[in-house]
Each structure stands twice: as C-alpha cells, then as structure tokens.
Amino acid sequence: MQNGTGPEPRRLTPPYGTPEGDIVVFAGARAPFRPAPLNQLDDETAVITAGLVDAVRMHGTPDEPRITFILINDEGQATYAAVGTEVYEEIFGVVVEGTKVHIRGICRRPFEDAPPYIHVTDAEPLFG
C-alpha cells in the first residue's frame, strides 16, 4: 500500500501482544541469575534481559528527562521499561526505537492490578 509518496514504511518490530510482564528475564542480585517471568518477581528484584526497543516516548522536562519504551524479546514477549533522570544522559543514545539492547534494571510493581515494568539502570547495544 502506498501513502502518496511511495511505499509505506515497514514496521521493524514483530507482532506482539500487550506487554503484561510475562517476558522471561534473568533475576537476582548476583550470579548465578535465575530465569523467571517478570510478572512473578517481587518489587525491587534486580533483572537482566535483552530485546528490541519499540514505542519510545520522551517524558519530563529538559532538566529532568525520562524515557519509557516497550522491550520485546526474540520470543515476542514484551514488557514496559522506564529510564529515569539519573541515567538518562548515559544511555539516551542507546535506547532508540528499532535497536536491540541489553539492559540491567529493577523490577517495579507500583500497582497491584497493573503489570510490572523494568526500571532501567544500564543499557548497551546488543550486536549480533
């Protein structure tokens, strides 16, 4: 289908459902980490995972910028992720839509009836 200026751009991400926190992450404060679904972890559990960045949104102010995005792994599992002001400047160039990343973070469960998300503490590009 065309949009009047040529073919419509193709979406980089695979189809996935609503992020419900069922993405499998590696959890724990130190090695060996254990694989576990994010939605079965306690609040403030350290996690490591990787995936494709999608639906990036900028929030906050110029003095206190923040980013939220959806992280999708190779199996199509997805979760929400958030980058706070404290690490924004270190990783803003890494968390770019369509980029595969490796992230470290903390499981956050702010509301009992909402899916958990990952509060990102570090991110780096994932090559390969």
Trace the largest sheet across and list its strands: 3-4-5-7-6
Runs with pLDDT <50, length 5+? Answer: 9-14
Mean pLDDT: 85
Which percent range describes the beta-strand content?
35-45%
Helix content estimate:
under 10%
Task: Give the N-terminus to C-terminus distance in angstroms.
Answer: 31 Å
Task: Sketch the major β-sheet.
Answer: 5 strands, mixed, barrel
Order of helices and strands: EEEEEHEE
What is the overall number of helices?
1
Name the shape in a single word.
Answer: globular
Radius of gyration, rounded? Answer: 15 Å
What is the count of β-strands?
A: 7
Q: What is the SS-derived class?
A: mainly beta
Structural notes for this entry:
The chain is mainly beta and 128 residues long. Helix content is 5%, strand content 43%. It has a five-stranded mixed barrel. β3 (46-60) and β4 (65-72) form a beta hairpin. It is globular, with a radius of gyration of 15 Å.
Describe the structure in brief.
The protein has 128 residues and is mostly beta strands.
